[in-house]
UniProtKB/TrEMBL annotation, chain A:
TM stretches of this protein: 6-28, 33-53, 59-80, 89-109, 136-154, 166-185, 191-212, 224-245, 251-268
Membrane topology note: Multi-pass membrane protein
Transport in keyword set: yes
Primary role: This protein is probably a component of a manganese permease, a binding protein-dependent, ATP-driven transport system.
Compartments, record wording: Cell membrane
Taxonomic placement: Bacteria, Bacillati, Bacillota, Bacilli, Bacillales
Native source species: Anoxybacillus flavithermus
Record-given protein name: Manganese transport system membrane protein MntC
UniProtKB/TrEMBL annotation, chain B:
Alphabetical keyword list: Cell membrane, Membrane, Transmembrane, Transmembrane helix, Transport
Residue intervals passing through the bilayer: 6-26, 57-75, 87-108, 142-161, 173-197, 203-222, 229-248, 254-274
Major subcellular location class: membrane
Membrane topology value: Multi-pass membrane protein
Localization in the cell: Cell membrane
UniProt organism field: Anoxybacillus flavithermus
Family indicated by similarity: Belongs to the ABC-3 integral membrane protein family.
Name recorded for this polypeptide: Manganese ABC transporter inner membrane permease protein SitD
GO biological process: response to zinc ion; transmembrane transport
One of the record's GO cellular component terms: ATP-binding cassette (ABC) transporter complex
Domain of life according to the entry: Bacteria
Keyword field contains Secreted: no
Length: 299, 289
């Protein structure tokens, strides 16, 4: 196998793994669309980082994106807290305005800094094939660090996700941990942007986690499964992309959605089919009971 | 000169259309559905192209309308079957968008439509794509399309004003009054899809979201009356278009990006100074004077 191809496979698998695991928490905290907002809000940060640093560097971009992503969350929270505008509209406002700013900066860079060579345009739609060895190294290290962070803080994340008040009561630094979680979301978005692009990165956070939700009631298993689903879709998408000459990002998302649909329909307990079957069985039982009861009265 | 006027007219029409439809989205807490539909409409456009082999006019509108309604329907279906609503939106639109992108890349050599164009739009090219009747040009196609959609939007809003109003503010009361709430929901989604697809070509998917949500949310800070809010948000949309256009030409950057930034600036200013719901006013009220 070509080295380049190996790079793409490794990085897509790791990216899927990390984003699936992080997405689990985003999903359970009902913050799926925050991932979407982060992915869009990262763009101006990346552009500004590029303007300052002068060349493409995943690490510098990560810092820039983390700053603008953080600003975006601050804005969203400020709007929700101080006005009567609801959260969904606040997310929409911040997402679209930040992205607009990103586009403005992007066109500026393309005109003034020779940005076409910088490969910064790839961030909009993602091109896994454009990943270089250096990118893959950064991506691998970041993904591994993220997985370790999740494992390390797993218990704390679990408590703040399910029972915030309790967590505060026990003395867990809730806002700090929320910040860590938010930082993880931003980082996974940034390392994923280049591979799958702005729009589809949010899907990589949501869809595998949602699929995993159907198979288990335990957070540990769900996190693991979401990671596996993400990695599977990443590899499958990269594979088909190689043979069919279609962009990687959308294919990864289509695979992830297929996994979700399968789980949604056929998962053993929570799936639609098993629900329908269960209802059918219950109804039959009820009918039998009713029948026996009626006969019993007659006898 | 006329070039500038056509661009400004296009941007103005986008501003009015989005301002009107967006008002209802903000009131009904469905802002993120506009994000969803603005992306999934891409699939509708590609689908329409595959069926009719052209990229303009009615077939595109129908394609977008169908996919827009499909998006709404799927989101609601998933939500009914127990998927939390934010995740339902996220899964549906990203999947439809992904399918759209794959189809575009498969037919890329034949379709005059690339993803970059779809996301960012290029309003600067609008004046070159003119509609010709009997050999004479009667103005850009985009302007006609937007004008047509504006007529539909105004017609629906005037015709069903009371129903829209009641169902947006108090859906339970609307149900007891016998107003067809579900129908109105789908009509609104239809309007949203039409507006999105008409604006799509000039300002791109994400900037449609800016034009839909930001001016309406800004108007929501200024007024409590629905009619005032509609006019106000259309006006803010137009204002943002003009400021954005002037700024973009001054710095030679993306016009649509600049327009969405200027909606953001107007929002940010209003956030502080709006008379009733602004932050400054609230803080003044709180502090014991």
């Amino acid at each position: 196998m070509d080295v380049n191809v190996q790079w793409v496979f490794t990085s897509m698998a790791l990216l899927g793994l990390a984003s699936g695991m992080i997405g689990t928490f985003a999903l359970l905290k009902k913050q799926s669309l925050i991932g979407d907002a982060m992915a869009h809000a990262a763009l101006p940060g990346i552009c500004i980082a590029f303007l300052f640093y002068g060349q493409k560097s995943l690490l510098v971009f990560l810092i820039g994106a983390a700053c603008s992503g953080y600003m975006a969350t601050v804005f969203i929270q400020f709007i929700v807290k101080h006005t009567r505008i609801k959260e969904d509209a606040a997310i929409g406002i911040v997402l679209s305005v930040f992205f607009g700013l990103g586009i403005v900066l992007l066109t500026w860079i393309n005109q003034h800094e020779g940005g076409n060579q910088s490969g910064i345009n790839d961030f909009l739609f993602g091109k896994a094939a454009s990943l270089t060895g250096n990118d893959v190294n950064v991506l691998t290290i970041t993904a591994v660090l993220m997985v370790i962070t999740i494992l390390f803080f797993f218990k704390e994340f679990k408590i703040i996700t399910f029972d915030r008040a309790f967590a505060q009561g026990v003395g867990i630094p809730v806002s700090l941990l929320n910040g860590v979680l938010m930082f993880l979301i931003v980082s996974v978005v940034v390392i994923g942007l280049q591979a799958v692009g702005v729009v589809l990165m949010s899907a990589l956070l949501i869809t595998p986690a949602l699929a995993a939700r159907y198979w288990t009631e335990r957070l540990g298993w769900m996190t693991l499964l979401a990671g596996v689903f993400g990695a599977l879709s990443g590899v499958a998408g990269a594979y088909v992309s190689l043979i069919a000459y279609v962009p990687t990002g959308p294919l990864v998302i289509i695979f992830a959605t297929a996994l979700f649909l399968f789980s949604f329909l056929f998962a053993p307990k929570r799936g639609l089919c098993s629900k329908i079957i269960r209802r059918h069985v219950e109804r039959k039982k009820l009918r039998v009971k009713q029948l026996m009861y009626e006969r019993g009265e007659q006898l | 000169m006329s070039y500038t006027i056509w661009i400004l007219l296009t941007a103005t029409l986008v501003g009015i259309n989005c301002g009107l439809v967006g008002t209802f989205l903000v009131l009904r807490k469905m802002s993120m559905l506009s994000d969803a539909i603005s992306h999934s409409v891409l699939l509708g456009i590609v689908g329409a192209y595959m069926v009719s082999h052209q990229l303009q006019g009615v077939s595109m509108l129908i394609g977008a309308l169908l996919v827009g309604l499909l998006t709404t329907f799927l989101v609601q279906l998933l939500h009914q079957k127990g998927v939390q609503s934010d995740a339902a939106i996220g899964v549906v639109f990203t999947c439809l968008f992904a399918i759209g992108v794959v189809l575009i890349s498969l037919f890329a050599d034949r379709v005059h439509l690339d993803v970059e164009h779809a996301l960012m739009g290029e309003i600067a090219f609008v004046p070159w794509d003119v509609l010709e009747v009997g050999g004479r040009s009667i103005g850009p196609k985009a302007v006609w399309l937007l004008g047509f959609v504006l007529a539909i939007n105004i017609f629906v809003i005037v015709f069903a004003y009371k129903e829209l109003k009641i169902s947006s503010f108090d859906s339970e009361m609307a149900i007891t009054l016998g107003i067809p709430v579900v129908l109105i929901h789908y009509v609104l989604m239809g309007m949203l899809s039409l507006t999105t697809v008409a604006s799509f070509d000039s300002v791109g998917a994400i900037l449609v979201v800016a034009m839909l949500i930001v001016p309406s949310a800004t108007a929501y800070l200024w007024t409590d009356r629905l009619s005032t809010m509609l006019i106000c948000s259309a006006f803010i949309g137009v204002l943002a278009s003009v400021i954005g256009y002037v700024g973009a030409t001054a710095f030679n950057v993306s016009i649509s990006g600049a327009i969405s930034v200027s909606t953001g600036v107007i929002f940010f200013v209003s956030l502080w100074i709006a008379p009733k719901h602004g932050v400054l006013r609230k803080w003044m009220k709180k502090s014991p004077a």
